[in-house]
# Entry
Amino acid sequence: MPVLFAASVAIVRQFDVLLIQRNRPPSEGLWTLPGGRLEPGETAEQCAIRELKEELGLDVFALRPVRVLRFRGFELQVFGTQTYDGEIVPDAAEIRAWRWIRPEQIGRLPTTPELGEVLAGAFRLFDRS
# Structure
């Protein structure tokens, strides 16, 4: 089975992070970071920027690598940022819900694998641990 490459972004705002609840498989109903699959010829950073614009209407800047995850046939590059512009306008086909949440609150939500560890890494990048 070929590996699918994807990218996502942890937008850190003070002590919160933006999470979305997916509306489609393979992560339908799960809370996670916004992002998606790379298109041919795209870098992980280009993918992350494009996906945030498509899914949420946000422009993101100054992306910093957080970590690479490998699970369920995916290789996911996670970025972190504190810099974004625009108002959140979710794509209803992709996103069921969204919210700003403190990392310690994710234990009550059904999430994608290793989300807690990923968020901890993102908050460390910005001295918010």
Notes: The chain has two helices and nine strands. Helices lie at 44-56, 115-125. The first strand starts at residue 4 and ends at 13. The chain has one domain: 4-126.
